[in-house]
Amino acid sequence: MLIDNFAKLNHSSRNVVSAALIIAVAVAVYDWIVAPHAAYLFAAQRYESVIGNVAEKNKAIGDTVEAKKKQLQELRKQLARLQSELFTSDEAKEFFSDLQPICEQTGCTLYALNFITVELDREDQQSEDSSAIVAKSTVLSVIGEYENIIKLVKRLQVRTQKVWISSVVMETISSDSPQIKCGITITVYTIRDKGAVLYE
Q1: CA 52 to CA 46: how far, in whole Å?
Q2: 36, 108, 110, 171: which could form a disulfide with 144 (CB 3.0–4.6 Å)?
Q3: 179 and 83 in contact (C-beta within 8 Å)?
Q4: Cβ pair 131, 86 in contact under 8 A
């Protein structure tokens, strides 16, 4: 029936109908075949662009992480070096108990050993607990000749751990004696557990 109607049309009308059919088929082919492929290609281009941006960001993050790792390793080395200068509680006890023999070995006589205690308020105690580092000070009172006192000071400081000498007060016993009274204030710093603080 449609074919009969088409056959009855004049030449120009048939051309118009044929053109309309061709356009309809072309639109259908575009919608079914071309448009999905075009959308896929567009999505692929967008995906490639996003992947490129992600790769650049990933490289930047990787470089930053690598730099931070190197910085962390350097900080750990510095911390290990600093911790080697600190005493453990047991090492500090041993050091203070060895003071009399050290004095005798350097030709000095120990006549008093006064520990200095510092009252800490609550905030200081909390910060001390978190850092795990505690200062222990004592005044070492000795009698000896000047050269022997110098030997004693050197001997106190020749250790792996540091001994801080904050003051040295000397006074002569008498004008005709080479002996000198000397008060040496020494401080050592103790740490609870060197390994635990290093890898916290």
Answers
A1: 10
A2: 108
A3: no
A4: no
Of the candidates 83, 104, 103, 115, which has an alpha carbon nearest to the alpha carbon of residue 153? 103
Written as six digits, the tokens of 142 are 């000795």
Task: Report the run of H or E that residue 191 belongs to, with start and end.
Answer: strand 179-191
| C-alpha span between 141 and 145 (Å, rounded) | 13
Q: State both tokens at 13.
A: 């009308």
- How do beta strands 179-191 and 133-145 pair? antiparallel
Q: What is the Cα–Cα distance from 148 to 180, expressed in whole angstroms?
A: 10
Question: Residues near 2 by Cβ (< 8 Å), separated by ≥ 6?
Answer: none
Q: How far apart are CA 115 and CA 187, in angstroms?
A: 10
Residue-wise pLDDT for 161-170, tens only, equals 888 998 999 9
- The answer to whether the CB of 197 falls within 8 A of the CB of 83 is yes
CA distance 135 to 87: 10
Residue by residue, DSSP assigns 37-97 as HHHHHHHHHHHHHHHHHHHHHHHHHHHHHHHHHHHHHHHHHHHHHHHHTSEEHHHHHHHHH
Q: What pLDDT digit, counting tens, does each position of 99-154 carry?
A: 999 999 999 999 889 888 654 444 455 444 545 788 889 999 999 999 999 999 99
